[in-house]
Design brief:
It is a single chain. This protein is α+β, with helices and mostly antiparallel strands. Among the domains are: 41 residues, no CATH class; 142 residues. It has a four-stranded mixed sheet with strand order 1-2-4-3. Helix 6 runs antiparallel to helix 10, helix 8 packs antiparallel against helix 9 and helix 9 runs antiparallel to helix 10. 23% of the residues are buried.
């Protein structure tokens, strides 16, 4: 089943005197690119998150944001110690930001007390809770659920993506069959045109080296024969359909296959020497290019 690299998941959690919110977004990427915005005062959290994400995802640009705030409604308030200097500096900075925004005609939402508490340095974390291991473990316990939600969305997107790609493969297969018919029809007309041209040449020059003539005819036949390209296009369609049926990441294989598709379509156009066959080749290139855009989102 095809899996997309596009997905989104969000969740909230609470425990050990804190509350937190997850936001995970995934878009297409050449490899696995992890961009994490997490509190740096929770020892070992980012390393653990990276390790789990690398196990769960194989490809895509993953943006994970985790916001953690101390729950001031719990008994943890008794252990809360404010850094008065940092608080004053933070409030002064907020006031300057609001004044600048007002002068520029921009209206900002007012931060809540919880927002201010979550700002770095306002709460003396080392004094209130020097051991953040229990908080880290509580946060990590919720990661499998949010990754499962992200995977479900990526799979749903992938299913829709697979249907689009399958339809495009059907179109390529139809065009390949049509090109085979046109190539056969072109063969007869080419033979007659070649005979007429040779007759005129022989009449003009009198005598021709038969060995050289046979060599030139063979070269023309090779340069205009498109059967090999059509056979490869058919094989590529079969290979792409097999990839759609596979489980697991297939995006890199699809990327390579798209290059091969386009290579054969380009060669077909260069060898066409017939308007109808050229039009089919151009239609093939258009469909392949459209499919390549879709393939960019396959994991």
């Amino acid at each position: 089943m095809t899996t997309s690299m596009t997905g989104f998941a969000a969740a909230r959690g609470a425990g050990v005197g804190y509350s937190w919110s997850w936001d995970v977004r995934s878009v297409n990427g050449k490899g696995l690119d992890l961009r994490l915005r997490v509190p740096d005062w929770i020892d070992g959290l980012e390393q653990a998150l990276r390790a789990d994400l690398q196990k769960a995802m194989s490809r895509g640009s993953i943006n994970l944001t985790l916001k953690v705030a101390r729950d001031v409604t719990t008994e943890a308030t008794d252990a809360l110690r404010l850094n008065e200097a940092a608080l004053a500096a933070t409030l002064a900075a907020l006031a300057r930001i609001e004044a600048t925004a007002t002068a520029a005609g921009v209206t900002l939402a007012r931060p809540s007390a919880a927002d201010v508490l979550s700002m770095r340095g306002v709460v003396d974390v080392s004094a209130a809770d020097p051991d953040t291991a229990s908080l880290r473990d509580a946060i990590l316990a919720g990661l499998p659920a949010i990754l499962a939600d992200l995977t479900v969305m990526r799979q749903a997107e992938g299913a829709a993506l697979g249907e689009v790609i399958a339809a495009q493969l059907d179109r390529i297969a139809d065009l390949t069959r049509l090109a085979t018919v046109e190539a056969a029809a072109r063969r007869d007309s080419q033979t007659e045109a070649l005979k007429d041209a040779l007759a005129k040449v022989l009449e003009a020059v009198g005598g021709v080296d038969e060995a050289r003539l046979a060599q030139e005819l063979a070269l023309i036949a090779v340069k205009t024969d498109v059967q090999e390209e059509l056979d490869r296009l058919t094989a590529h369609v079969d290979a792409a359909r097999a990839l759609l049926a596979e489980r697991g990441p297939v995006g890199r294989k699809f990327d390579f296959l798209m290059q091969e598709f386009m290579r054969e379509a380009n060669t077909l156009c260069s060898k066409a020497q017939a308007l109808a066959l050229t039009r089919i080749g151009l239609d093939l290139k258009t469909t392949i290019d459209q499919m390549r855009e879709q393939v960019q989102n396959v994991e």
